[in-house]
């Protein structure tokens, strides 16, 4: 509790701040596909918060947000090359069904974690289940798609030294 005459300013934003590298930015967004269909939105929930300049959001959106201020509204289209990349047909693989546990429930659309020989984890969606094989797609679901964003900047502040060292935003006094 603050004593009389003392004010805790915490990590308040400066309404004149502009988005630049090492700023914590909070924004509401709506993402639509090329046909205008809504894919997802933060409206009705918490805004998305990230550290600018640290590749925590797609490159094309990060570029457009640089220099913006609290309260600004931005509408932009992000090409696949600056979004989730182009689709890579080499990431569509067919695996013999015998490599799956007998009782493992397989369902088209289910996402599986795969591990390569170097213990790297890769997410892949089941796209087809055959008698003798299962086809998986390890492309990001948004790969090859133009992303249409409508954004409202809600808050900008300087990232703390701890946030920069840890590589993520700390909310509510988070510490490791």
The major pleated sheet works out as: 5 strands, antiparallel
Quick one: CATH class of the largest domain?
Alpha Beta
Low-confidence stretches: 1-12
What is the CATH fold-level name of the largest domain? Chitinase A, domain 3
Radius of gyration, taken over Cα atoms and rounded to an integer in Å: 21 Å
How many β-strand runs?
Answer: 9
At CATH level 2, the architecture of the largest domain is Roll
Distance between the termini: 24 Å
Q: What amount of the residues lies in strands? A: 25-35%
The total of helices stands at 2
Count of domains: 2
Topology:
Elements: E1 23-32, E2 38-41, E3 48-51, H1 59-65, E4 73-78, E5 92-96, E6 111-115, E7 121-129, E8 133-137, E9 147-158, H2 161-166
Provide a short characterization of the protein structure.
7% of the residues lie in helices and 34% in strands. It contains 2 helices and 9 strands. Strands 1, 2, 3, 4 and 9 form a 5-stranded antiparallel sheet that branches. The chain has a 4-stranded antiparallel sheet with strand order 5-8-7-6, with no helix packed on it.
What does this entry look like structurally?
The protein is mostly beta strands. It has 2 helices and 9 strands; from the N terminus they run βββαββββββα. The strands form 2 sheets. Strands 1, 2, 3, 4 and 9 form a 5-stranded antiparallel beta sheet that branches. A 4-stranded antiparallel beta sheet has the order 5-8-7-6, with no helix packed on it. β1 (23-32) and β2 form a beta hairpin. The longest helix is centred in the middle third of the chain and has 7 residues, at 59-65. Mean pLDDT is 89; it is low at 1-12.
């Amino acid at each position: 509790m603050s004593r009389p005459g003392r004010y805790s300013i915490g990590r308040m934003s400066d309404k004149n701040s502009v988005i630049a590298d090492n700023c914590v930015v909070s924004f509401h967004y709506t993402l639509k596909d090329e046909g205008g269909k809504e894919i997802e939105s933060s409206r009705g929930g918490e805004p998305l918060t990230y550290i600018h300049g640290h590749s925590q959001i797609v490159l094309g959106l990060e570029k457009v947000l640089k220099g913006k201020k609290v309260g600004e509204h931005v509408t932009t289209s992000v090409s696949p090359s600056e979004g989730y990349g182009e689709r890579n047909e080499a990431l569509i693989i067919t695996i013999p069904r015998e490599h799956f546990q007998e009782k493992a429930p397989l369902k088209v659309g289910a996402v599986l974690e795969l591990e390569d020989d170097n213990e790297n984890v890769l997410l892949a969606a089941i796209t087809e289940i055959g008698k003798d094989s299962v086809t998986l797609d390890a492309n990001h679901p948004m790969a090859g798609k133009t992303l249409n964003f409508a954004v409202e900047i809600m808050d900008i502040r300087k990232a703390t030294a701890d946030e920069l060292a840890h590589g993520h935003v700390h909310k509510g006094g988070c510490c490791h």
